[in-house]
Amino acid sequence: MELKKRPLSIKIIYWLTQITFWLVVLVLVGALAMNVAIQAEWLGDNMQLHTVLPVQVNYTEKGTLNIDQTIQEVEFVEAIGKLHFINTSEDIAKWFGVFLIVAIIFLLYIFLMFKNFVSNVYRGIVFERYNIRMLQKISYGLVGMWLFLNIYSWLFYYFIAKRIEFEYLEITGEVDSYGGILLAALLLWVLSYIFMRGVKLREEQELTV
Amino acid sequence: MAIIVNLDVVLAMRKMSLTELSEKVGITMANLSILKKGKAKAIRFSTLESICNVLNCQPGDILEYREDSE
Known about the structure:
The complex is a heterodimer. In chain A, α1 runs antiparallel to α2 (90-122), α2 packs antiparallel against α3 and α3 runs antiparallel to α4 (179-206). Chain A has helices spanning 8-39, 90-122, 129-159, 179-206; strands at residues 47-52, 55-67, 70-79, 82-88, 169-175. Chain A has a 3-stranded antiparallel beta sheet with strand order 3-2-5. Chain A is of the alpha+beta class. Helices cover 59% and strands 21% of the residues of chain A. Chain A starts with 7 loop residues before the first helix and ends with a helix. Chain B is mainly α. Chain B has 5 helices and 2 strands. Chain A binds chain B through residues 203-204, 207-209, and chain B through 27, 31-32, 34-35, 39-44, 47.
């Protein structure tokens, strides 16, 4: 069914998805080029790697909060931050390069499915089997991404975070579990299951003589 | 599919076209075509009754069960 007039929100989502998808493709191409350079050892030992630290850190710093002349004492206790490798060695860079590519491939797959889904909705194709399968594929992609991030985080914890020593802050064993991604995947899968049941009921209704 | 629709056979025996049946039964050609091609998922008793009435046959003449050969 072709939509005669599309709502503005669908148009905005459609164009945002298209732009974001091609940006992710651009990032992937850049990451691939970067990886080739890293694996071929063209960049040397002075790369400045900046990465998310998927482990919680404890840090004690006292301060004051001033609201309407009332002074409240506060204490900074824990955070999830970023790690900067000063003059990253080639070995570390190579591993991070591989992880980056895998993460971007997962991201690209999820975005590709989402782009196709939104494009179908934009063209008025909503309750169709292949469109709902896109939702299922997005949820599988999210589960894959969640698994990958967990593996990455634990590897990061055992091989890097556990071995770092700071003067004032302590790296804990609380590794980020990315539960939100898993929850989103489950929600999407349940939704796609409900939609698929709806499609089957509609088909049955249409094919009843 | 295990249920075979023999509507075309009965129609041929009665020398009746699908269009004629469609007019007499009051079912659209599209729906009768779905039934004839065996694509239908379900058939209403009322539809079956009308077809049997017009073709002067039994439901068993139109529908047949065959075991799936796999």
